[in-house]
Automatic annotation (TrEMBL):
Coiled-coil annotated residue ranges, if any: none
Subcellular location: Cell outer membrane
Gene Ontology CC: membrane
Protein name per Swiss-Prot or TrEMBL: OmpA-like domain-containing protein
Chain residue ranges for the region called Disordered: 1-64
UniProt organism field: Haptolina brevifila
PROSITE patterns, per the entry: OMPA_2
Amino acid sequence: RLAERAAAERAASERAAAERSVERSAERAAVRHKPHKDDKERLAQEEEAAEIEPEQQEESASVDGRSSSALVWLCEDKLPAVEPIEFLAGSATLPANARVSLARIAKELQVCPELKVHIAGHSQADEEPKLASQRAQGVGAALLDLGAMPAKLRAKDYGHTVPLSAAMRTRLGLQSDRRVSLHAISEIGTRYGCEFAAKETAVSDEALELLREIASLMRENEALRLSVEGHTDDRGGAAENAKLSVSRAQSVCRALESLGIDNGRMVPHGFGASLPLTDNTSEDGRQRNRRVQFLAVPDVGATNE
């Protein structure tokens, strides 16, 4: 019996020792994982960052590799490969085989939100000058029929000012300079809009800061030419808004000229209320629509030798 009692006491002692060991291990673990003051601050910062809305996180991050502090940048897009469209002599009728390539362009315009197209109309020296414009407008109308949005198209006639060399015509499979060429438009992206007060054409201090950055970008890119495009909200008549939008574009061109940019590198255009960024049902929407935007004029003679 004494032996049994001794064995029982030893077993009880071993169980107690084991329990104390477990308790000490738990205490050491608790001490080891007890948050330090610095850890608490770090955790608080992480929790605060987790609560930031996705839009705020995107604003803080770099955009397409650009620093979040950048006010302006050059957005360059590409079109799918498309050859110039050749026209018959004295004609502005779109060739039937051109719709296949134009359908590709229209589809690309639908899936690429930022892509815009410059439609360059050309004629030969022995043709009516107006044919260049009619050809460009005809291609634009075809793209609209294929689903392209008007805000994504810019048509311009160049008359016979950009003839192609014989070698370039051969390379492009052309018999003449009676053509329309299509070019992706590079846009000057801005961190905030170059906006105007209602009915005003004066450049604000905030907009002037933006224009300083645009002037700097143009000095860095000496071949860069701009289409300076003015817009209005929907208040007022069409004629009044057309005039106001041109005046805003001209005001911006003068400001850029005062910053050292040759006025020959800028062309002002006015679109009135025809190309709103957003709806005009709120004051915020109208404010965003009273703006000037900047598009890089493509070098339509870049393929010329």
